[in-house]
Amino acid sequence: MDENQTADAVPETTPEPGPAPVLPPFVTATKPATDIRARIQEAGGLSLDRLPMLSVVFDRLATACSDADKHLAGSSTFYSLSGVESGRFGEFLDAYDANAVVGIFHASSWDGHVLVGLDRDFIYTMTEVLFGSDGSEPPVEDERTFSAIELRIAQLVFEQIGKALESSFGLVSQTSFRLERTETRMEFAVIGRRSNKAVQAKFLLQALNRGGEMFLIIPQTVLNPLRPALGKLLTGESSARDPHWAEQIAAEVQKTTVRLRAVLEERHLTLGEIAGLKVGQVLTLDATPATRVKLEGNDRPLFWCRAGQSQGSYVLRIEDAINPEKEGAHGLLD
Question: What is the 3-state secondary structure (H, E, C) of the chain?
Fold first, then answer.
């Protein structure tokens, strides 16, 4: 028997259909939909323009820090907000490497941490202020390591800033800020991944004709739950309506030129019919002298009118206002 006969001798077998495969049941998400929205918002980053209350909080923080220093220093100190920006946490810290002291604060109600930093010029200026300097000596420009006294002064300032943070953020959320530790090396000032997004606010200190910089870094994960509160505007910022200004606006608006169009009838033609039109051809209309005319302004239906004549001119008499929701966007001719 050759190979072809052997192959023909083998009967073809069709596998019996087995039971249909059982698909696994759908897994119900255990996390609420708000978690998904929060992750999308976190991936997209914070839009500072949509958080107007954040600038208000930072302005209050600058004022609170200025008031706190009045009880410590004989010379006047002034804090001012110089800028707010969003970026990566690690990039913010790298700008102050070996040139600042940072304090790590824990916000208990937020279950998160924020970082406050004081640059070298800030520490030197505050040291002179607290020890009664009159500013006659030139400022210190030495980039040495911070002394024990300077670090103790930095910790004292951090304690005051913690109270100022509580009062300023009280507008949007009540929480306490507890100073956990201070660091002079930025690689140890870790409150999250260096690639995480964060918001940084910079404040300028002015005292003794010199100054320094304080910076506040808040991770985006901490601010995400506060978005609804930070997105609101203070009701006290809205001014009362000025009647004279409203009258002037109304007067100027009423001077605007509006072009009106009277539509007697509308007809829909195909492109072929329009291409076949010839000069002198007459188009018949179904409208009669009793048909109402539609008055439009800026392609919007306004009134139903009746056409007539007066002193040799065509005129329209307004009868009814057109309700677009009831009669459609263009109204119905009758």
Answer: CCHHHHHHHCCCCCCCCCCCCCCCCCCCCCCCHHHHHHHHHHHHCCCHHHCHHHHHHHHHHHHHHHHHHCCCCCCCCEEEEEEEEEEEHHHHHHCCCCCEEEEEEEECCCCEEEEEEEEHHHHHHHHHHHCCCCCCCCCCCCCCCCCHHHHHHHHHHHHHHHHHHHHHHCCCCCCCEEEEEEECCHHHCCCCCCCCEEEEEEEEEEECCEEEEEEEEEEHHHHHHHHHHHCCCCHHHCCCCCHHHHHHHHHHHHCCCCCEEEECCCCCCCHHHHHCCCCCCCCCCCCCCCCCEEEEECCEEEEEEEEEEECCEEEEEEEEECCHHHHCCCCCCC
